[in-house]
Specification:
The complex is a heterodimer of chains A (about 400) and B (about 240). Chain A is mainly alpha-helical and about 400 residues long. Chain A folds into 2 domains: about 1-40 and about 175-390, no CATH class; about 55-160, D-Maltodextrin-Binding Protein, domain 2, CATH 3.40.190. In chain A, about 65% of the residues lie in helices and about 5% in strands. Chain A has 15 helices and 4 strands. Chain A has helices at about 5-15, 20-55, 65-75, 85-90, 105-110, 130-155, 175-180, 185-210, 215-220, 225-255, 270-300, 300-310, 315-325, 340-350, 355-385, and strands at about 55-60, 80, 100, 120. A 4-stranded mixed beta sheet of chain A has the order 2-1-3-4. Chain A starts with a helix and ends in an 8-residue tail after the last helix. With about 240 residues, chain B is of the alpha/beta class. Chain B has helices at about 40-45, 70-75, 90-100, 105-120, 135-145, 165-180, 190-200, 215-225, 230-235, and strands at about 1-10, 15-25, 30-35, 55-60, 65, 75-80, 155, 185-190, 200-205, 210-215. In chain B, strand 1 (about 1-10) and strand 2 form a beta hairpin. Chain B starts with a strand and ends in an 8-residue tail after the last helix. The chains are: A mainly alpha (about 400), B alpha/beta (about 240). The interface between A and B is medium-sized, with 28 and 30 residues. The structure holds adenosine-5'-triphosphate and magnesium ion (MG). The site of adenosine-5'-triphosphate has 12 residues of chain B, from strand 2 and helix 1.
Chain lengths: ~400, ~240
């Protein structure tokens, strides 16, 4: 039987017997993504739905000075709460999102046909209050515009005099593209699944074997080391591929049970999405297996390898973070860079776009080239005399 | 047959092996005796091609290790200094893994494996996972997997290390059996009684050099000491590290 296959089968068999490896490779690693995603979506949806449906409860100071205004606001969904003594403190302490204050001379100015003033007291540095402030402002402006129009009509003028320019919103974002914006972290979860799927194996098969003193006897067998390496890489790849598959399926399930349409979004995480993700992630599976093995080969001990790899795990997050923070335009060259290409590609799929076969093949080919280079470097390190010696 | 010609291996300033030559013949047990740090493990590592010598030549059954390392390894059964097993595999599975790597046929693997399990008296542990094995059980498993392909030449680095009296006795018995089968047996030790009791030929090394290469009797005669222990001390020039 072929050496690579022998090594591969033994490593798979041995690691299938290890609970910790299985837990991290097939449970924790792949499912952490869907889990966080579901949690995130759930929070967002619950919050948005609550905000939109619930009446706006806001303390109103001086409601008695403007009964007509208050009546109109009530129609729009405002429930005035009793006035607070110190509105500035109330918004700072987050006792109220916003406080409406109507001065005592409101009615006097109103009768004169002058601009009557109202005050909105709020703290814009409190994130959660944005919705309430906007809703109240919108209600007030609507009321103001309506009353203004009625005054013009009363004087025999057309209300359009007051609105020489009318603006119509035509937002080109689709529900999918808005979802894609929100989920730019999602591609990282797939990389994470691949990484976690192979990590314990990669450490165990090189740093672990050396630490347990079984690498030296292994290399005393009449087989070339690169074949042993390829067998081991194969085992790592199989575990990380399994992890990726579980993750993709997990996201598929999430996509079905999360009521994203309530936000006006569509989650396209079905089989077509899953297949394309697995396809463009394939080079990363090999690349990460090689890199993890390389790091484990340099580490002096199992623990050291674990530390290094935990740091290495942060690197794939970079494209995700950069692309979600910086307004970088997607360019064709991005598909040639491993990790970045996958990030851009998966985001594009999430936004409801298609991947052209050109983009897919660029992504896969360039990824494979880099993966082969990484494997060659790892093989060179495997040839070194020091590798097998644990001292 | 294993021939070593003028072998050198330095690690920085440490002259681990500094001009070692000897021959280990078929049908004989050759002992590599030396105190701690003498360079025994390093010499053996160059024999089974884990390390490349700085200078010198290694020939196993006439094959040059520098030319065809893989062919040399095929001629060898090795119990290295590091003898870690795969904890999550049983003793049988450990043996079978190495047998497969040797390219053996399934039927032959079965036969040789059972033969060795019997010879090493490890039937009771053969189907246990090796996690938690005692020193002796580990050594037995490591020897079985090293010899499963029926090698002509056997290299054992301190094989009795950590074994109790009974286990040591049965291991010596086993080594005599290997010799009786016509194999070339080369082992290292820092225990002189062991070497004296077993060897047809003794190669004494100290500080990376061969300081004696004789039969036990010739060694006694050469140093004029009746007691082998005194003979060794005299050869090495001090009694460092030669405690039994
Ligand atoms: N990989 C290495 N790197 C640096 N120095 C080494 C290495 N291997 C061995 N040495 C040094 O070479 C010398 C010989 O070591 P070696 O392990 O061959 O001795 P030994 O005869 O097997 O000793 P022992 O009886 O303790 O096993 C020692 O001084 C050791 O520190
Ligand atoms: Mg040693």
């Amino acid at each position: 039987m072929n050496t690579m296959l022998i090594v591969f089968l033994k490593e798979v068999r041995e690691n299938l017997r290890d609970r910790r490896t299985l837990g991290s490779a097939l449970l924790f690693g792949p499912l952490i993504g869907p889990f966080i995603f579901a949690l995130m979506m759930n929070t967002v949806i619950t919050r948005e739905l609550n905000k939109a449906d619930q009446p706006l409860r806001i303390p109103v100071i001086g409601a008695q000075y403007a009964p007509n205004l208050i009546d109109a606001l009530k129609q729009e969904g405002l429930i005035p709460r009793p006035p607070v003594a110190n509105p500035e403190a109330a918004v700072r302490d987050q006792d109220a999102d916003v406080v409406l204050r109507i001065p005592s001379d409101f009615d006097k100015s109103w009768r004169k046909g002058e601009a009557s003033q109202v005050e909105m007291i709020y703290d814009s540095s409190q994130r959660e209050t944005g919705g309430s402030i906007d809703r109240l402002r919108h209600m007030l402006e609507t009321y103001s515009r309506r009353q203004g129009a009625m005054r013009l009509v009363a004087r025999g003028l057309s209300p359009t005099m007051m609105a020489p320019v009318s603006v119509d919103d035509r937002d080109q974002s689709t529900p999918q593209s808005r979802a894609g914006q929100l989920f730019s972290i999602l591609p990282y979860f797939f990389v994470l699944a691949v990484f976690m799927g192979g990590m314990y194996l990669a450490i165990d098969l090189t740093a672990g074997e050396r630490e347990r003193q079984s690498l030296e006897p292994l290399f005393a067998n009449p087989v070339p080391r690169w074949k042993v390496l390829l067998g081991k890489l194969g085992a790592i790849c199989v575990f990380s591929l399994a992890s990726l598959t579980i993750s993709v399926v997990g996201f598929g399930v999430c996509g079905r049970i999360i009521p994203a349409e309530k936000l006006g979004m569509t989650l396209n995480l079905g089989p077509a999405f899953a297949l394309q993700v697995v396809l463009i992630m394939l080079p990363l599976v090999i690349l990460l297996a090689s890199l993890q093995t390389l790091v484990a080969a340099f580490a002096k001990s199992y623990r050291e390898a674990q530390t290094y790899l935990s740091l290495l795990m942060m690197v794939p997050a970079l494209p995700s973070v950069l692309l979600s923070v910086l307004p970088i335009k997607v360019a064709p060259w991005m598909f040639t860079v491993p990790l970045l290409g996958q990030q851009v590609g998966i985001t594009q799929l999430l936004r409801g776009g298609e991947l052209t076969s050109m983009q897919i093949s660029t992504c896969v080919t360039c990824g494979l080239v880099v993966a082969v280079l990484a494997t060659l470097v790892t093989a060179a390190v495997y040839r070194s005399e020091r590798l097998a010696i644990s001292a | 047959m294993i021939e070593v010609r003028d072998l050198y291996k330095h690690f920085g300033d440490v002259k681990a092996v500094d001009g070692v030559s000897f021959v280990a013949r078929d049908g004989e047990i050759t002992g590599l005796l030396g105190p701690n740090g003498a360079g025994k493990t390093t010499t053996l590592r160059m024999l089974y091609t884990l390390m490349n010598p700085d200078r010198g030549q290694v020939l196993v059954d006439g094959i040059d290790a520098a030319r065809d390392a893989q062919a040399v390894r095929r001629q060898l059964g090795v119990l290295p200094d590091a003898r870690g097993l795969y904890k999550r595999l049983t003793a049988r599975e450990n043996i079978e893994y190495f047998a497969r790597l040797q390219g053996m046929e399934h039927a032959l693997i079965q036969a040789r494996r059972e033969q060795l399990i019997k010879a090493l008296e490890m039937e009771d542990i053969a189907d246990r996972r090796t996690e938690g094995f005692s020193q002796g059980q580990r050594v037995k498993t490591a020897i079985a997997r090293a010899l499963v392909h029926d090698p002509k030449n056997v290299i054992l680095d301190e094989p009795t290390n950590g074994l109790d009296v009974m286990a040591t006795r049965s291991l010596r018995q086993f080594m005599r059996r290997l010799k009786g089968e016509g194999r070339c047996v080369l082992f290292s030790s820092h225990i002189m009684q062991e070497v004296a009791a077993l060897c047809d030929r003794i190669v004494v090394i100290a500080h990376g050099r061969v300081v004696a290469d004789e039969t036990p009797d010739a060694l006694r005669a050469q140093t004029g000491q009746l007691n082998l222990e005194d003979a060794f001390v005299k050869i090495i020039g001090s009694d460092e590290g030669l405690a039994a």
